[in-house]
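tokens incoming
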């Protein structure tokens, strides 16, 4: 019997998503970068510690261990260990076994980065993923792999001493996540993990917090442990104020701008770029941005600035959107779609709040860059003016020297020797000075003034140094 005959007109039926759809989405989000998977697993650990702290736990320092075991021509194993809340088997099925569910506690106001209910699951795109956890003296273990995408329960029983030794959780609760990475994926070397990994934009707060300790261990050398720390660039705070967003008067974002002594090379497409501005809500660092291409291209001035745009209103927009979705209501023009990019590329640039937020923040940054440029131009003008003055002084000195050397031997007649043309009769001439005697062997300058007869076009004067006696 044809199954189509069983379909009733008007009957509602949920869309069925194939495993292929999940894999394609996971590949697009992870971008073939194992680091992105580790970021998901580490931030989950940090969220768990944060929830403990909010619930009054006495835990002062939350340690997260990253262990790597490299195997030539075989899978590389990553192990991420925390000693935070831990999970029961039921917790694992609720959090790992359901894709797309917001079950991190974020919508209820808990400090968490989890919004999509996909992050940890998408790590499976690189290989198999195993969870081992201790919670309230119980031990639970599950596994999921890329080929089948089935969550398999391996253990659910009371914890024993062997479990604690195996997980290195001597007391209390905690979780060990093991990611087996297929050989086809590129794995960064240890130096990258030690020096570069702490700079990953969404891990910087974790790596710089006093109450978190991130340890990297190569299991081939288990006794050598590296404490991963991030130090923000040094800079003088030049702006630290709440900015106004007219379209969203209750947003109250805080913009903090610092000026570095050294230039920070602009690498806007890099996850490790230390310049630009981190856009943060209560818990998450969503992205690092320049706010606009105009600002990004204003070099070298922009490369001296970095900072933070902190706006918890982003979380409110997400929660408001989810509430309307749950009620299957219509979204407003102020919050028409999800503000967080589902592919983890920061805020959705088409969202009206993102545009308004970046516009107002960009105005502040542009004004600072304008002042920086004017200051630099004034400095250049001062240098040019000073150099011009020095050149003119030098030129004046050279001209004075030239005049002195070339004019000092010229005998200039006294003013009384100068005569006006009216003093010379037509056709006449005068010699100045009158009655000049020139000793033999010497030279004197003589001025001869002549005035032609007006009716003649030309008149010639013959001058000779011989006297009437030819002497």
């Amino acid at each position: 019997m044809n199954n189509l005959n069983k379909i009733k007109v008007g009957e509602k039926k949920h869309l069925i998503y194939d495993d292929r759809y999940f894999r394609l989405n996971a590949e697009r989000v992870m971008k073939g970068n194992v680091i992105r998977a580790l970021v998901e697993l580490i931030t989950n650990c940090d969220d768990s510690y944060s929830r403990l702290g909010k619930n009054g736990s006495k835990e002062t320092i939350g340690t997260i261990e990253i262990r790597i075991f490299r195997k030539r021509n075989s899978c590389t194993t990553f192990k991420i260990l925390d000693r935070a809340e831990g999970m029961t088997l039921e917790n694992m099925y609720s959090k790992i076994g359901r894709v797309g569910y917001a079950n991190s506690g974020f919508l209820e106001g808990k400090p968490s980065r989890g919004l999509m209910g996909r992050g940890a699951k998408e790590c499976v795109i690189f290989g198999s993923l195993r969870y081992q956890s201790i919670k309230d003296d119980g031990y639970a273990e599950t596994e999921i792999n890329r080929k089948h995408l089935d969550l398999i329960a391996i253990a659910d029983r009371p914890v024993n001493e062997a479990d604690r030794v195996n997980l290195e959780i001597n007391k209390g609760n905690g979780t060990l996540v093991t990611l087996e990475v297929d050989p086809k994926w590129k794995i960064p070397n240890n130096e990258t993990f030690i020096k570069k990994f702490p700079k990953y934009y969404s891990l910087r707060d974790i790596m710089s917090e006093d109450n978190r300790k991130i340890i990297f261990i190569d299991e081939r050398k288990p006794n050598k442990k590296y404490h991963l720390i991030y130090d923000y660039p040094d800079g003088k705070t030049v702006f630290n104020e709440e900015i106004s967003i007219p379209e969203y008067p209750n947003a109250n974002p805080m913009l903090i701008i610092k000026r570095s002594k050294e230039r920070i090379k602009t690498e806007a497409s890099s996850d490790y770029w230390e310049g630009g501005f981190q856009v943060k809500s209560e818990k998450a660092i969503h992205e690092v941005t320049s706010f606009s291409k105009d600002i990004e291209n204003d070099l070298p001035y922009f490369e001296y600035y970095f900072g933070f745009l902190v706006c918890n209103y982003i979380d409110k927009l997400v929660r408001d959107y989810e509430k309307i979705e749950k009620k299957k209501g219509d979204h407003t023009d102020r919050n028409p779609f999800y503000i967080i990019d589902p592919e983890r590329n920061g805020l959705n640039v088409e969202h009206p709040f993102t545009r308004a937020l970046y516009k107002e923040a960009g105005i502040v940054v542009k004004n600072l860059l304008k002042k920086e440029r004017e200051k630099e131009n004034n400095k250049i003008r001062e240098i040019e003016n000073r150099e011009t003055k020095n050149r003119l002084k030098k030129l004046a000195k050279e001209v004075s020297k030239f005049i002195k050397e070339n004019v000092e031997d010229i005998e200039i007649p006294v003013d009384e020797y100068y005569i006006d043309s009216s003093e010379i009769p037509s056709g006449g001439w005068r010699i100045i000075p009158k009655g000049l005697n020139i000793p033999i062997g010497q030279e004197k300058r003589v001025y001869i003034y002549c005035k032609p007869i007006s009716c003649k076009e030309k008149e010639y004067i013959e001058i000779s140094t011989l006297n009437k006696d030819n002497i």
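note: Residues 75 and 182 are 5 Å apart (CA to CA).
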